[in-house]
Amino acid sequence: MKKFRKVLDGLTTSSPANPGGSPACGSAAGTPSTAPTPRELEIQETLMSEHFQICKTVRHGVPYQPTALAFDPVQKILAIGSRSGGVRLLGRPGVDCHCQHESGAAVLQLQFLINEGALVTACADDTLHLWNLRQRRPAILHSLKFNRERITFCHLPFQSKWLYVGTERGNTHIVNIESFILSGYVIMWNKAIELSTKTHPGPVVHLSDSPKDEGKLLIGFESGTIVMWDLRAKRTDFRIYYDEAIHSASWHHEGRQFMCSHSDGSLSMWNLRNTAKPFQVTFPHGKTQRDGRKESCKPILKVEYKTSRNSSEAFVVFSGGLSYDKAGRRPTLTIMHGKAITVLEMDYPIVDFLVLCETPYINEVQEPYAVVVLLEKDFVVVDLTQSNFPIFENPYPMDIHESPVTCTAYFADCPPDIIPVLYSIGAKHKKTGYSHKEWPVSGGTWTVGSQTYPEIIITGHADGSIKFWDATAITLQMLYKLKTSKVFEKPKSGDVGRSAELVEEDPYAVQMISWCPQSRILCVVGISAHVILYRFSKHDASTTITSLEVRLQCEMEDVISPSDTENTPSFSDPSGHSPQPQPPSPRSNTPDSMRDSIPCLKVKDRMIRMPPGYQAELVVQLLWVDGEPPQQITSLDLNSAYGLLALGNCNGLTVVDYLQKTILLCMSTLELYGSADPFQRLTRSPRKNRQSTSDFCMRGLSNFHSDSKKRIRTSYQSLTELSDNQVSLDLERSKSPTSAPYTPSLHNDPRGTGEPVSNLRSCHYSPVFYLLDNGYPSRRAMLQQLHGVSMYSHDEHHITTYSWSERESRENSFSRSRSSSVSSIDRETKEAVTTLQFAESYGRKSDTLPTPCLWVGTSLGLVLIIPMSIPTDEQERLEDPVTVAPTGTVLMLKGSILRIGFLDCGGALINSPYEVWRDQHAPDHPDRPRKRKLVNFSPSSSQEASGDGHLAVVCSERQAKVFFMPSQACLYVHNITESSFVLRADVVSVCNSVCLACFCANGHIMTLSLPSLRPLLDVNYLPLTDMRIARTFCFTNGGQALYLCSPTEIQRITYSQEMCDNLQEMLGELFTPIETPEAQNRGFLKGFFGGNAQTFDREELFGEAAAGKASRSLAQHIPGQGGMEGMKAAAGGVVGELARARIALDERGQRLGELEERTALMMTSAETFSKHAHELMLKCKDKKWYQF
């Protein structure tokens, strides 16, 4: 524990904490503090570096780009492999584990060691891996790398330790699962086919042992050749040469016939008695044409042939096979049961499917009960026991990506009553028609951990929908869904519409979410420059939605006219800055140059019936101005106690009173400074060519696209495209301009155009971005998408190069210091509002008591404090105006401002004031009038205890500072990064203390102590290779964070050592000891005439003694970690040794217990046998031979 002391007496704006000597601390004027000097500040910090560790907790959503599927019928565990090398293991709700191959190679096939707690994966890099599932964090035990052949198919018989591996050359190898070493027994392709055959049979596409005789192996080659190989005799029993390519094969459980699926959409049935030709060929979806021919059909990629006791007819399930002439039909799964054919249409292409059966033995009646269907972006299970084949309700959150996720918000330690309320409302809108049976994937065990608290994740989507998820105890369950598009009128079919031109097919896409769990007020920012405010109610209501239209556009006269600079608006009468909303123009197809004062979307202006849940109350829309579209909103904050909503973009700031439905403040960022602008952009005399330059400075972001139909490109574009495009590697390391030399190829890029320099200059978000982006288009694209500002179109991505001299001048101007680059600031006066925060604070140095304030952070690293006067009486609050008076107070940091937080003088986090939720549509009670109940909001007369001041934590893309208020003295400063920049930052509570958590563009996750800003954690966790991660990464309390790791999956992580230690307890157990079901008694006659399958000894055939050793150059054995990763993650040092010893002891005890049980069973069996033998001896003792 470390104690920090800092005496604030005599501290002025020239504090040594500011190394640059610029007025970064205190006001812009640099005057000494006139506020009363507080007592000595004593804060004891309890957080140490030992409290932090990065660890992945759980992954939600359907695996992205799935490739393979497997199921353990005894353990009832499901495995899904993906193209990126991931493996998801699913059991009962709560049992959900994600594993990752380090190579990142695609998973081709999965094979469970049934009821053994192990899994074999075959990857695209021709490597086999054996995973140990008997631990909460599965790990690789063995790997086998094939050097000369490509793996195409694998098959592992039930209760066998020998894995058959087919290759692209047509050979079949055999691997010992226990040692993961190749056997010397090889089935060569040239031995499997006839010597007279002139062509290669192609890769192995199918391997399976005969249900009738395990010593016979059925090998299917892609060309249509099928071979039954006798493993004992090392020769073929029969060969089948078929005209059509084979995709899969499936046995009847009796082993006398099998079925194949082919590339022409046909199914062929073969009988082992006569293999000269199939005894049945069917085209399930191919109709006979007039000329007698079958119409051409698509390939049947997989077929499964299963029998049932209750029916003499078998189930035939297959995917594909539709006729080619039916264009536009969705992918289908066909279920044939007798003469009945059921076609199930799927929303996405089918990757793989499995028929789940009651028995793991292939030579028994299979009794199918469900079909697991793996789709490209979904995962469904069909109930086969009911005639209408309903699907099961999926307990996993597989529909996160139903519409592409565009933003996320994470709230830990929510009010305990909010989750049941949201669930009860959302349950009324759930789909029906699901199967009534229990979810069949029910393996593993999971219990709610001891340390759980309510957690909620909110996702915003491209179609304008909002989803609330219950994320308590590492699970994820959807609670409630809200559609923001219902607030607006639907565009007419023939009307191109303003919104369609702006954002193409996603005009309602959610860009930002602000939610107050205590007051249950929700604010949603849309891509069409609109904000919707929702209130929660348990009752339905019929109301009209209030619409406010804001003309937030900087006028160029503010810069070029000397008289305008002299007549800077006075801050004494803030009400004078409330613009009057202008009525929208009725024109919808108006040319761009004539559009003025019209919003992008039209709000419904009639009475609307709203169901229980979140009900829209207010919509704020930014308007077109002089043919220019509104810029996207970059920042938002809401305070329920104040009844205020603030929003900002690259043009300025707007403050809305949502209780009185009025606009309080609408000003450009330059106007907010007044005479306190540190760059003095308003007081310089204009040059002769100032007008044209200013035009681009003030309207550059929108003017850059004046000739383009795509006015506002969606900042979530990389999020909505499911192709998962990788951003340039320049993004990954994010070098500073001074450390990365410019390459001449950029200057001589043949794709560059003769665009005017001023026009190109105007397309940038702020000078800070030049400091950050090295001039690479990919960096600007990332910042554009991250902040939601339209800098340029993705279609025009390749023309954003500019002249060498221009880049060099920018480099020189920003490599020295921020404060000295006034000329560059003049060229880039487009200053965006990047963060907003309401709080009880001090607007001036002379203030003795805190008042409601709005802290405004900009893209130039400046922080403005705007105090407000809010009536405290409820009736006065609804009638009297709220006064907003910008004071010109300016604080300064390096880089764009990202986060502002507040601590009291004891170092504890100060929460923003809020209003306790009350249902406005609930029936009135005369005894209990509904009044506003405010928390942490005190009138000035009762704030003596709060008059000691507080600490303000401000974090930018490069730097973090702690200021003492009201003196505005900078107590601590820390340069977070020099070679990169911070993407996300938040002040969070961890281990009963507070820290600053940061996520950088180079993949580093860092935590800093508060208030001293000591580095506590710095881990290179996640190299930023995709814009999606930057846009969706968010921190929350309790040491947790999340991000969208793929278009369909949410990855949750923790940076708390305490949670890492408790993670083993929170995760589910994948393996539970279950006795393997006994095989059915085959009977004397079946056993006698059914072949000698039971006496087949694979060890005798494939062992080293009989088959010899395989060639060392064929495959390389790689020993795995044996599950040590999980133990290392759980503990280290002596604790780790104890944990390993305990696990080894537990496994030894478990084995001893199993041995003891087997010994007891053997003794019981021996006693029974002895008893029966003695009885038989006594019975037959005195009988003659002819009496038997």
From TrEMBL:
Its main location: membrane. Residues 1123-1183 form the V-SNARE coiled-coil homology domain. GO terms for cellular component: plasma membrane; SNARE complex. Residues 1-37, 561-596, 727-758 are annotated as: Disordered. SUPFAM superfamilies: SNARE fusion complex, WD40 repeat-like. GO terms for molecular function: GTPase activator activity; myosin II binding; syntaxin binding. The keyword Disulfide bond does not apply. GO terms for biological process: exocytosis; Golgi to plasma membrane transport; protein transport. Keywords: Cell membrane, Coiled coil, Cytoplasm, Exocytosis, Membrane, Protein transport, Repeat, Transport, WD repeat. Residues 12-33 have a biased composition (Low complexity). Residues 562-571, 736-746 have a biased composition (Polar residues). The keyword Glycosyltransferase does not apply. Belongs to the WD repeat L(2)GL family. This is Syntaxin-binding protein 5-like. The lineage of its organism: Eukaryota, Metazoa, Chordata, Craniata, Vertebrata.
